[in-house]
Amino acid sequence: MRNLERVILKVQKNVTNILLNTFTKQRKKLGEKNLKSNIKPFYYWNEETEQLVKVKKGKYLKWISSKNPQDRIELRRVQGKIIKMITEVKNKIWEKTCSTVESYLGGK
């Protein structure tokens, strides 16, 4: 019985070594990708938005842990600020784009 257990353990070790070696060889062959570098941020995303989102996460975690109605009100306020800020930034960018297009069309 002990011999059988030893054989099973050896087989398991060999299988894991084979899998690990295959995985590392494939990773070296294909190369590793850094996905974060390929992701472009939204055109309306800026540092202020990022800071507010971090604050919102903190408020959310506080509300989830306490289930206090006051914490939920604070969370909703921060969410409203984020939505308002993003809307303002999008509108500014849209106005800028429209003025650029109008200047091209008006020049013809």
* Sequence stretches where pLDDT stays below 50 over 5 or more residues: none
Beta-strand content estimate? under 5%
Q: Can you count the beta strands?
A: 0
Q: Helix coverage percent of residues?
A: over 70%
User: Sheet with the most strands?
Assistant: none
What is the arithmetic mean of pLDDT?
Answer: 85
User: Structural class per helix/strand content?
Assistant: mainly alpha
Structure annotation, total helices: 4
Number of domains: 2
Q: Write down the Rg.
A: 28 Å
Shape: elongated
- Give the topology string: H per helix, E per strand: HHHH
Distance between the termini: 91 Å
Task: Give keywords.
108 residues, mainly alpha, 2 domains, elongated
Structural features, described:
With 108 residues, this protein is mainly α. It folds into two domains: 1-37; 40-108. It has four helices and no strands. It has helices at residues 2-30, 35-38, 47-66, 69-106. α3 (47-66) runs antiparallel to α4 (69-106). The longest helix has 38 residues, at 69-106. The protein is elongated, with a radius of gyration of 28 Å.
